[in-house]
Design brief:
With 453 residues, the protein is of the alpha/beta class. It has helices at residues 53-65, 80-89, 99-103, 111-123, 135-167, 172-175, 182-192, 198-202, 213-219, 226-264, 289-297, 309-319, 330-336, 361-371, 379-391, 393-414, 427-452, and strands spanning 6-10, 13-17, 23-28, 32-36, 46-50, 70-74, 93-97, 344-346, 349-352. A hairpin with a 2-residue loop joins strand 8 (344-346) and strand 9. It is globular and about 90 Å long.
Length: 453
Amino acid sequence: MAKVARKIKTGKGLRLKIVNPDAAGIDVADGEMQVCVPEDRDGENNRRFDSFTCDLRVICSWLKACRITTVAMEATGVYWLNIFLMLQREGFDVVLANPLQVKSMMEVKTDEADAEWLMLLHSYGLVKPCFQPGDVARQIRNLTRHRSTLIATAACEVQHMQKAMEQMNIKLSTVIRDVTGKSGMAIIRAIIGGNHDPRSLARLADRRCKASEETIAKSLEGTWDEDLLLILRQSVEMYDTYQQKVAECELEIERLMMRYAAQVDEGKAGALARAKKRNGYKNAPCIDVEKYAQALFGVNLMAMPGMGAGALMGLIGELGHDFVSKFETCEKFCKWCNLSPNNKITGGKLISSHIPNRKNPVGQILRLCANSVSREKSEMGAYFRRMKAKDGHMQAIVATAHKMARIIYTMVKNQKEYNPRLVGCNEKELLERRIERAARQLQKLNEKLKKVA
């Protein structure tokens, strides 16, 4: 593991110590790699390579010949990924740097200068590594993000279906809440199958629909234009295709989770006490995520209010099982999640405390979880409502997501199950405190009244 910066005292004052003498720097681009090693390792210590796979192997061989043990590179698009993974497989300690961190330290912007500066900064331990999960977790992350993209694209096809029906003056979306549900899809498939009789179509709706059969029949009286029927049919076909691809993606995710859990779980995780949450919401993964998360993290994160199967599946891919070992403290983990304010202090005064304007996938997941507890009758829900009354809805989402991040880190770090009593007071205790506070205020007012009288 690469070392961090250290100071040494000399006769001329403090100086930085070289903590990574066997360091190299790589400036990554689409078509070429600029690699720099210390001058005493090779006569031509700053070389340019192509980015083909055979060239990446040559880079690894050259670095080994130069006795390099650790390498620093910038996170440039997705071009860094292949060389990063290959160097890791060859046994190098690879540090992925945030370009914003090292940009201000570099001189003239050239590939040779960038590679040399990365090597120099890394030799003094001044390059902070970006968080990266393991290989299997990265594969799960890629598939969970791809699944989200497929679901979003399928939602666009639903909008195309609704637009085509609106243009034919078919008001199905006004009488049925979800046109992709059982009743809606049965009616739409019958329409593209050639059935245009409103009464016959209305009888296909489930009897549990709130709208009456007569109302549904009225909404199905349209113009039945051939061009719009073609658009509707193709939109339904595309929607079915995306749903099939989502199912295939979930099968591969489950296979990877099974393999990941088998690698990590060494019998340390105890018996799974299920959270008994409803998993029938739309687009919920058809995977027993709770079981695999228990094997990976050692605790049941599903027990936390607001945590669903989709969110937990995303956390597995984004974090991996060993994320607590890569963040020294809970505060650093929350800051990485972009859930902590960026306090700027000058002259002893706090001049700004805004959260940075950047998106972190884990932070986005926890924000969605926090928003879902706004009406829950739990300690987390009570905390959300207290924050909302104090600062507003958006601030309450961030504050609750921050608390969830701290809870997740603490649960995994200490291997302790979720304890709602440590979150805060429940609704009943809060009301009792308000009554006591109001009683004290009333007593003070009575004492003032007696003094005036």
